């Protein structure tokens, strides 16, 4: 995995780079200037951007498909949470989390998931939308989808046909109001139907 890192605190940036490189990932550029980051990334595109919160202001003007992970020093940072809630940022994680957690979140975001850790518990948590209740079997299918199982794998685990699995998936898409399996994980997290550990597990499959 190739990463472009923008972090104002050089010591934290150095530790972060060493942690990523220790897991076999490549830091294609590391800077404390968002414009330098994007200019360098244009020459050597990363798989994921890892940015500290002050760099978030530059995200809305970029329309590329490369995902973003935002590192929070302050859990009350409205700009970072707004970016996540509006789909500009794909992941948010507090710097107070362990490096292993930052790595897990970044790897999971690179695999198409949307994850937020460290959101304030009081008065700032995203409200779960009201959805049509899911059946027990639909919940089983949903958790397998979030973990990255294919239709064939789910059919084997559940002991049903692939047609039955596809029917359940279509019902989930309808009830959660999304189009495409890739968006089910975000919708499930928003609705409080899965927890972060399930999302991270899906990112490692």
Structure report:
This protein has 205 residues and is an alpha/beta fold. The chain has 2 domains: 2-116, Response regulator (Rossmann fold, 3-Layer(aba) Sandwich); 136-204, Orthogonal Bundle (Arc Repressor Mutant, subunit A). It contains 9 helices and 6 strands, in the order E-H-E-H-E-E-H-E-H-E-H-H-H-H-H. A 6-stranded parallel β-sheet has the order 2-1-3-4-5-6, with helices on both faces. Helix 5 (136-146) crosses helix 7 and helix 5 packs across helix 9 (196-204). It starts with a strand and ends with a helix. Residues 122-130 have low confidence and may be disordered.
Briefly say what this structure is.
With 205 residues, this protein is of the alpha/beta class. The protein contains 9 helices and 6 strands, in the order βαβαββαβαβααααα. Helix 4 packs across helix 9.
Name the features.
205 residues, alpha/beta, Rossmann fold, Arc Repressor Mutant, subunit A, 2 domains, 6 strands
**Biggest sheet overview:** 6 strands, parallel
CATH superfamily of the largest domain: Response regulator
Shape: elongated
Say how many strands there are.
Answer: 6
What number is the mean pLDDT? 77
What structural class results from the helix and strand content? alpha/beta
Give Rg in angstroms: 18 Å
Q: Which residues form runs of ≥5 with pLDDT under 50? A: 122-130
**Roughly how many Å apart are the termini?**
15 Å
Q: Which architecture of the largest domain per CATH?
A: 3-Layer(aba) Sandwich
Strand order of the largest sheet: 2-1-3-4-5-6
Total number of domains: 2
> What is the helical fraction, as a range of percent?
40-55%
């Amino acid at each position: 995995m190739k990463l472009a890192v923008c972090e104002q605190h050089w010591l934290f940036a150095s530790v972060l780079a060493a942690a990523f490189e220790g897991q076999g990932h490549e830091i294609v550029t590391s800077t404390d200037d968002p414009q330098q980051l994007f200019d360098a990334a244009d020459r050597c595109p990363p798989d994921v951007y890892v940015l500290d919160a002050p760099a978030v202001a530059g995200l809305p003007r970029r329309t590329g498909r490369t995902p973003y992970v935002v590192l929070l020093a302050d859990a009350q940072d409205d700009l970072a949470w707004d970016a996540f809630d509006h789909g500009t940022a794909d992941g948010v994680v507090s710097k107070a989390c362990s490096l292993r957690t930052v790595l897990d979140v970044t790897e999971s975001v690179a695999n198409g998931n949307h994850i937020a850790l460290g959101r304030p518990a009081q008065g700032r948590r995203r409200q779960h939308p009201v959805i049509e209740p899911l059946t027990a079997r639909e919940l089983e299918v949903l958790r397998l989808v979030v973990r990255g199982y294919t239709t064939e794998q789910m059919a084997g685990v559940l002991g049903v046909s692939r047609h039955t699995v596809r029917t359940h998936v279509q019902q989930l898409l309808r009830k959660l109001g999304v189009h495409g399996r890739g968006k089910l994980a975000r919708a499930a997290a928003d609705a409080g139907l899965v927890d972060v550990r399930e999302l991270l597990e899906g990112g490692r499959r």
